[in-house]
């Protein structure tokens, strides 16, 4: 190889090296831009998901309020006519000693000979957690409502939609079960049903 050929080869390698460096720099810039675009797209997706979750939560709350509103007239009738309740309060909010707020869909009570209180939870779709929620409210009743602690306490779980298995579980816990029929709630308990009295123990 001659000196000239060697110089040409070195020059060619230098030019190729320069081109490769420029292409690598361009690729890094494109990758950085692509990464920025992906990051921006992910942020937009996160924002859209949060907004959608908020909207779904709002719809669920509205449906829950609708269900509670649907239940109130027929539940008021059940509570007053079948249980003798004289005070019926929808959407009762109370704070426990730790400052945690709890909401009870309906709290009904009466004094005198009956001297009873009833907590009603209304659900559009009955789940296991709904049963646990009502049981917890009943167990904590004396602490949450010391002014009503001397009353016998019962629980009613009212649901628009509930599997037969969950209905049986509600009854097995000693809770009354109410289901909607022809846009009216009615109690669905067997003749031999024995409700659990939470404050008698």
UniProtKB/TrEMBL annotation:
Q: Which InterPro entries match?
A: DUF3782, Restrct_endonuc-II-like
Residue span of the signal peptide, if any? none
Q: Which Pfam families match?
A: DUF3782
Query: Which protein are we looking at?
Result: DUF3782 domain-containing protein
Q: Give the species this sequence originates from.
A: Methylovulum psychrotolerans
